[in-house]
Amino acid sequence: MRLLSLNLEDFRNVANANLTFSGDRVFFLGPNGQGKTNLLEAIGLAGSLRSFRKSGMDGLVREGQSRSQSYYRFLDDNGDEREVFLSFRTKGEKNLEVDGERVNRLGGHLGQFPAVTLSSRDFRLIREGPSDRRKWLDLLLSSSSLEYFNNLQGYTRSLRERNVLLKREASDGELLAFEQSLAQCAVALHIFRAKSIPLISQSLALSYSSLTDKAEKADLLYAPDLSIESVEEYLQKLADERTRDRIMGSTRKGPHRDDFLFRLQKRDARTYASEGQQRGLVLALRLAEFTYLRQSLGRVPLILADDVLGELDNKRKANFRKLLPPEAQVFATGTAYPSEDESAIWETFEVSSGTFSLA
Questions:
Q1: Strand ranges (DSSP E) for 105-192?
Q2: Nearest CA to 254 among 152, 356, 332, 165?
């Protein structure tokens, strides 16, 4: 997948940008606060329709304007040009068109224009609670499988309805009507996660080993809230928990409480990994995400690297550059090049106050 051009209007501090990209290594260079990250954010929206920096669309439309719109031209892995048009307001529905046709279902769009974002904000995946890790995992698996996306939607919908009934102190019969669909989706999610996380872990282990010259070993460990192998098993668990769930007014057990752990040398990285090691772990995770998407979709994702190389020590920085997939188009940002001898390898745009000029 290649991004050939981007026309962007009224996005954050960017009033208007018309950019054409001819290379596989594109660098946005400039001081902090000028709009470098904003452009990466806009590129990522084409595939996921969500910001890698925040939830919701608040603040994405340029101040004083009512709407933002973007036009993207891609070259897919079959050599065909694809066009994406995205328009949205701060509040309200997005308008998405692909090759001139309106797209109404997100599930059918996810994975069509994949991108993997590397950002210092990824630290939250290690340091924060399980909800951020689940969001990352759900987006990755939804982007690679429509079946997973549909089961996730079904589970979320049934969970919400069951919680409403719990608060109303509904009868067992009313609860059971939603528990049947809840259990079917829950088992599907559990099985999919249990199969996928070890595959992601294998790729992460290889990338992290390369970053550290094989000096350290890392992996991921699936930590499900419940190990549910059958619909009947989860239905029984829901029945057993109804009294407590009624008291709490919510469903306390299920995939919505799942987690996965980063481990370094078989120990929990939240406790035992240094800041430098944690940086390496999240970069290795993103490289594993790239591998998983490429294998699942048969497409080469874009890589969006938001000022991450400057945060690595020299050894990890050098090893990371070697790990960047040569077949991927990389868009990177920074206040300076990662090293003094790199300017020649990048197609560089200088960034100032939301404007972009080819260097």
A1: 115-119
A2: 152
User: Range of 231's domain?
Assistant: 123-296
Q: Please indicate, yes or no, whether residues 79 and 107 belong to a single structural domain of this protein.
A: yes
Give the dihedral of Cα atoms 336, 338, 343, 346; nearest 10 deg: -100
CA distance 348 to 326: 18
Structure tokens at 4: 């050939």
- Does residue 268 sit in helix, strand or coil? strand
Per the structure, the count of domains in the chain is 2
The alpha-carbon radius of gyration of the chain (Å, integer) is 22
Question: What token pair was written down for 214?
Answer: 């094989």
Q: How far is it, in rounded angstroms, from Cα 108 to Cα 5?
A: 23
pTM of full prediction above 0.90? yes
d(CA 107, CA 153): 10
Please, which residues have CB within 8 angstroms of residue 63's CB and are 6 or more apart in sequence? none
Order of all β-strands in the sheet with 218-223: 218-223, 259-264, 267-268
| Cβ pair 254, 159 in contact under 8 A | yes
Return the pLDDT at 162: 97
Q: In this predicted model, what pLDDT tens digit does every residue of 83-109 receive, in sequence order? A: 999 999 987 778 999 999 999 888 889
| Six-digit token string for 295 | 């294998």
The enclosing domain of 135 has a CATH number of: 1.20.1050.90
